[in-house]
Amino acid sequence: MRTLVIGAGIGGLTAAAALHRAGAQVTVLERAPSLAPVGSAISLAPNALRALDVLGAGDEIRDLAAWQGDGGLRSPGGRWLSRSSAEAARRRFGGPLVLLPRATLVDTLAALLPPGAVRTGVRATLADAGYGSRPARVSTPEGELEADLVVAADGAHSVVRGVLFPDRPDAVYAGFTTWRVLVPLAGVEFASHETWGRGRLWGSHPLRDGRVYAYAAALAPEGEQAGDEREELLRRYGDWHRPVPEILAAVGAGDVLRHDVYRLAVPLPAFHRGRVALLGDAAHAMPPSLGQGGNQAIEDGVVLARHRADLSAYTAARLPRTTGIARRAVRAGRLSLLPGRVSTGLRDTVVRVLSAGGSGVLLRGFDGIADWSPPYAAERTAT
After folding, report:
1. Domain count, the chain
2. pTM over 0.90
């Protein structure tokens, strides 16, 4: 099976590795000049790790990952609203939640592919979806390529999605923007946490290599940018509890990444047309509120390889699940970014009361998500 993957993000590389393992001839076309990802980290839940097990990479990722231990949810003043237990999560979902730099995951996935399979600096567009018996065709600056299967992993504003479903709206602004930093921080010990304020939040997580991954989100107009994003973070979060000030002090002018968040408000009727399959954000862009965007893309890639000869089965397996998770992510995002003083006070009180009996109440929010396993996990991807 000649396969072209458009986009070398986490989902695209997972699909390429799974399809290669299944015996397909795979070429990945990436418009960026290299695979070097932006400076950030990713949290992998047990569902994604079990998907990676199908590729034989799950244990390697677990060994490379920073261990995300006990932590919890805090208020800007530092009060713990709830505590989380890594062991409780492991027992409930059958595996750990791990945190690692995106670069580590990208390198691991790319290493599963044969040399030369990934072509960077290539802009690819869909010329023909390949209905019936004819192959799909992809246009590149060097000419057209034919394929038995095209995998579109080209992001929330997917050009391929627009070709396949021209009557469907593009991803819409989710109402908030995000910042991410990945910086070294020596001599400051702290537990992983997410902090909820009024219309904004902050998360801090230590990595195994001594760096800290921190992220922030805030309600903001679409497209708004600050002249100095580090100063913007200081203005918004500089007076929050420790270690937020210490992390911000370690951030350099070029360390901050800012991106508006987009989501598909109207689910697609299918994740395929002709010989083309959509994957990851191209299929179901969702807010990062549950940390499942990348995790679902990994699931997509493994399931797609299983159903590579029957894309309708791929749609049937993935569309209902990802639609439900995306809706839950929207609700979680609204809860964490409530803007009003009264509503946030009520939210925090409810969280404290519910958490008084232990971390199990909050972990229920991931039931049906983190406990997922590939239905064919015991088999090889190849058939």
Report:
1. 1
2. yes
